[in-house]
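User: Quick sanity check before I run a bigger batch. Here is a single chain. Can you write out its predicted 3D structure?
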Amino acid sequence: MSIKYDVTMDELNAYQTEFDKPAAYEVIVSGMITPESYACVEGLSARIEYSEDGKAVTILTGLFNDQAVLAGLLGAFYERHLTIISVRKLPDQD
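Assistant: Done. Predicted structure follows.
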């Protein structure tokens, strides 16, 4: 069984990320989390937003030195049994 994606190679290449250089990410986590939960990454900003049904989510944004740092943060959330809603690479700020 094969999966057909309706994108061009140029579109795919636009999303290629170098793993060993800094990049900005947005990480959305269910609930209101404490700063200790993301203290392993310096310089993250956090804000709380509420969904239509009144549930809180924490939105973290910041520059990660490399994807190993991002993986470490996600691993810390996993160890704390926090629900990760999404992880998104933000556009480069050249």
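The two ends are 41 Å apart (CA to CA).

User: Great, the batch can go ahead then.
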